[in-house]
Design brief:
38% of the residues lie in helices and 20% in strands. The chain has helices at residues 6-14, 51-54, 61-67, 72-76, 118-146, 178-193, 216-224, 249-274; strands at residues 2-4, 19-23, 28-32, 38-42, 81-85, 105-106, 109-110, 149-157, 169-172, 205-207, 228-236, 240-241, 246-247. The chain has a nine-stranded mixed β-sheet with strand order 1-2-3-5-4-8-11-9-10, with helices on both faces. Helix 6 (178-193) links the parallel strand 9 (169-172) and strand 10. Pfam families: FGase (PF05013).
């Protein structure tokens, strides 16, 4: 993996070069082993938090971890194109629009002891802007190459905070073209429901049950690329103890192994159907 500037990354994408890179500010990673028609993303995987923000932050490292999506990159790491965030969403949230990306409060709790200096806020927003420049170049290249593209937007959520039964997998589809892509959404939901998890954890999959696909990442791609479907795919945090901050690696590896087969199968079916 090489450290590259955003301009260098974009140049490589436009030339359809294969590479593994980390942005020169270490804010995200991008791996391209082959220019296939699908992208895997784990934008909330990161836990990094700039040191100049530490003393001013009222949330603990555990508070931040609890709201992040740990291990989501590992679940999709085997795929040919993987883009992942390295920074915590508490520094700036890639999945929110720029004007909302730097929090003042987070999950009902004030985030900063003192108002964040504008220079620090702008440093965070510059990372947000750079990430989307790369996303734009990436989706543009893939959609131009294949006519269509599909993005598996991996997230996780804290299922124990709900006071009702919630699904193992949730697809958020309220901001994609459901009329055009209804069959593709349903086949992905069905595939997720068939995943077999260790420890007799049941694998249910529902659409718009806990989250609705309102993230900026999905909206940005959907609004800019009419032939790309983004599937906001949330796994309940059955792969960890969300209260004790313990990861269950056997569950993570099981999910990764099954997605390794299921994602490309679904993506190829999507491309064959819509490229006719």
């Amino acid at each position: 993996m090489k450290k590259l500037s955003v301009d260098a990354i974009i140049n490589k994408i436009k030339q359809q070069q294969t590479f593994h890179a980390v942005a020169e500010d270490y804010s995200f990673t991008l791996k391209i082993d082959n220019y296939v028609p699908y992208v895997c993303a784990a934008i909330h995987d990161g836990h990094q938090f700039r040191k100049e923000l530490w003393d001013n932050c009222l949330h603990t490292a555990y508070d931040r971890w609890y709201e992040e999506d740990p291990e989501t990159k590992n679940m999709i790491a085997s795929h040919p194109i993987v883009i992942a965030g390295c920074d915590s969403r508490f520094e700036y949230d890639i999945n929110r629009p720029p004007e909302e990306a730097v929090f003042e409060t987070a999950w009902g709790k004030q985030l900063w002891k003192n108002t964040l200096p504008e220079v620090q806020k702008q440093k965070s927003l510059a990372k947000h802007k750079a990430f989307y420049k790369v996303v734009h170049a990436l989706i543009d290249t893939i959609e131009s190459k294949y006519g269509m593209a599909i993005v598996y937007d991996m997230h996780s959520y804290n299922w124990k905070r709900w006071d009702r039964e919630v699904p193992t997998w949730n697809l958020g589809t309220s901001n994609v073209d459901n009329e055009r892509f209804d069959e593709d959404i349903e086949t992905w939901r069905q595939s997720l429901s068939e995943i077999i998890l260790p420890s007799n954890i049941k694998s249910t999959a529902l659409i718009n049950n806990t989250f609705f696909g309102n993230g900026y990442f999905l909206k940005y791609i959907t609004n800019n690329f009419k032939n790309t479907l983004v599937l906001a795919t949330e796994i309940a945090k059955v792969y960890c103890d969300e209260h004790k901050q313990v990861i269950f690696p056997e569950i993570v590896s099981s999910v990764a192994a099954q997605l390794k087969a299921r994602i490309p199968k679904h993506a190829m079916s999507f491309i064959e159907k819509h490229s006719k």
